[in-house]
Amino acid sequence: MIVIVASGGANTASLQFALQRLGAGSAVSADPVAIRAATHVILPGVGAAADAMSRLKHSGLDALLPTLRQPVLGICLGMQLLFDASQEGDVACLGIIPGRATRFPPAAARPVPHMGWNTLDIRRPCALLEGLADGNYAYFVHSYALDLGDFTVAASEYGAPFSACIQWRNFYGAQFHPERSAAVGARLLQNFLGIN
Predict the structure, then answer these.
(1) How far apart are CA 182 and CA 196, in angstroms?
(2) Catalytic: 76?
(3) pTM greater than 0.90
(4) 93 tagged catalytic
(5) Which of 61, 77, 161, 179 lies most in the core, judged by the most C-beta atoms within 10 Å?
């Protein structure tokens, strides 16, 4: 059973459709019992870090999510929430992975948010990236990002390199939107569902 955490993100319907196209059903839930029983958990995110953390705390999921042992995939803001903190609203996040999301510095040639297709630079092998290659394009929409670290399995660049995909134990993340990234996104989601 795949559970998409009901964290108020606006991309849950398109994510469910993307999973359906892979032949996988999913439920959207904030129920701790359902989340703990899931084989795979997806933490989506569209919006502001402080608002998302407020919703997770309200439902008690801020305490539950770090204890999960099954594969967990954070998408966009959901990936950032796996880390210690975000500069957005100066908020403490789930604290699963050391690091802090920071805002892209604005520049004339690089408007913020970073929006559109960008390439992936695979830094090390990871089950999440099986079948993907350097130079593959993915679709990004974000103003905040994580620097490169021990958790980085793929990078992208917008003025400077940032983490495009991460892994930390059973926690995975994609800064881009796989549900909007055509064949690359579909492969990433299929890879995630194949992780035990």
Answers:
(1) 24
(2) yes
(3) yes
(4) no
(5) 77
